[in-house]
Amino acid sequence: MKRTAQAVWSGALKDGKGSISTQSGVLKESPYTFKARFEDDSGKSATNPEELIAAAHASCFTMQLSHFLAEAGHPAAKLTTTAEVTVGPVEGKGNTISKSALTLRGNVPGMSQADFIDHANKAKAGCPVSRALGAIEITLDAKLEA
User: Fold this and answer.
1) Largest Cα–Cα distance of the chain, in whole Å?
2) Domain ranges in the chain?
3) What CATH code would you report for 49-144?
4) Residue 10 forms beta bridges with which residues?
5) Three-state secondary structure readout of the chain
6) What is the pLDDT of residues 93-137, one digit of tens each?
7) Order of strands across the sheet with 30-32?
8) CA–CA dist 43, 80 (Å, integer)
9) 146 falls in which pLDDT band (50, 70, 90)?
């Protein structure tokens, strides 16, 4: 199976602008800019590659975990994952993605915290996006909530 996305860019790096579209149409000519990527701390002006990686990582990890929990006889009532991707300057390399921090909160009836963490760590290691991000640090903060 293959999935596609298209990026279009016009202009120089700092004053140029671009758009991103995805095969599904969920993103259709969504804007992205240098400012949105490196200067807008609010993250509201446009999308950026790191935000898209964070979305991919959070969704992939959560789907993988839901599978492992169901296999263990404890389907989740709800799983909420936030992925925070860090990008910044690295000496000799320019801006580099260095980390994806996963924060997971789950409602999984009948499961202990220890078992939940074991399954979450297995999903962190096994989801395809985590494997693709193998060159960076991936952390996990996982907690069961009612």
Assistant:
1) 55
2) 5-38, 49-144
3) 3.30.300.20
4) 17
5) CCCCEEEEEECCCCCCEEEEEECCCCCCCEEECHHHHHCCCCCCCCECHHHHHHHHHHHHHHHHHHHHHHHCCCCCCEEEEEEEEEEEEECCCEEEEEEEEEEEEEECCCCCHHHHHHHHHHHHHHCHHHHHCCCCEEEEEEEECC
6) 899 999 999 999 999 999 999 999 999 999 999 999 999 999 999
7) 5-10, 17-22, 30-32
8) 20
9) confident
pTM: 0.94
**Residue type at 18?**
G
What is the tens place of the pLDDT at every residue in 49-82? Answer: 999 999 999 999 999 999 999 999 999 999 999 9
| Nearest of 72, 70, 46, 61 to residue 105 by alpha carbon | 61
Give the length of the chain.
146
pLDDT of residue 32: 96
Q: What is the CA radius of gyration of the chain?
A: 17
Mean pLDDT score, 6-10: 98
Query: Hey, what are 145's tokens?
Result: 């909530």
